Amino acid sequence: MATTAVGPQARGRAMGLITTLGPLGLISGPGLGGVIVDVLGWPWIFFVNAPVSMLVMSVALRTLPPSTPLRVPERQWFAESVLLSAAVAALLFALSFTAGGGPAWMLLALLAVPLLLVWLRMPSSSAVRDLFRTSGEVGPHVALASAATAIGTVFFMIPFFMQRELGESVSAAGATILLFPAGMAAMGPVGGFLGDWWGPRRTAIVGAVVFTVGLALLLPLDGSWSPADMAWRLFVAGCGNGLFNAPNVAMAMTHAPQRLLATTGSSTSLARTLGFALGPALATLMWSISSYEPAGMRAAITVATALSALSVLALARMPAPRAPAAAPGHRAVDDAVT
Prior knowledge:
Elements: H1 2-5, H2 11-39, H3 44-47, H4 49-63, H5 75-101, H6 112-120, H7 126-133, H8 138-164, H9 170-177, H10 179-198, H11 200-218, H12 227-255, H13 261-289, H14 294-316, H15 331-337
Helix pairs in contact: 2-10, 2-12, 5-6, 5-13, 8-9, 8-12, 8-13, 8-14, 9-12, 10-11, 10-12, 11-12, 11-14, 13-14
């Protein structure tokens, strides 16, 4: 929706707005969730999605062009969902069960291979295949998935470290963790503006480098640290991720053909969500290898730092960006945004 609302030259700022609102949800979510759990009970945290989803659909109906078709999903789309969900589940279960049952459980991950091969032969996968054949699409997707996995790993491991090794309370750990999304929220609009003005690729690389540095600063995981020692490092990492997010997604949307914009929005969302899910499973595996000792926590943060560095490499190896032309009908909106 944001991509169709503005032209290519304002896309970075549009993505910056979206990637700012996301961290604000991260900041408000724990507090709101605590109230819901205390007053209504934990099952109600899932029902919050229903009114939010209704709101999003109503906004979409009002803002998408009238020519946008509304179709009921076909049967093959449901089959596609089953195949992809089963493949992801096989990978996540393999990592999780290996932590408790030994390396033999990693064989379960092999089940994902035939499932993905069957999906690739389905007609409904043609849009995704066409997208990844487009120049400039692989880099932003790999960078996004790597960065999201790093975030998932850190968000899972840091609370355990603060409670077990630093002796901090749950509330202190939660407050410290919030410095990461606070950094994202602070630098999200800046990343969008710099992406439009200085170039999305260069801005995304700078953000990815700062994110990697922030994670590397966490690597000692010193047992003598205070929450403040942890907080400023998380804030640096969050600022880097805030700089990275908007221009990285803007690159993916800009390189995508017009007919595949919705597919690109879905694929970038999947890359991010898959990384958030994969991170905790990967962190658990690394921690379990050391019999849940502090050395395993450091190993998990080391892996997260390496994944963040991979995002830098993926962007650095991208082909030179092409200058997009403004789409017809966007001039008035672009002038208003400017």
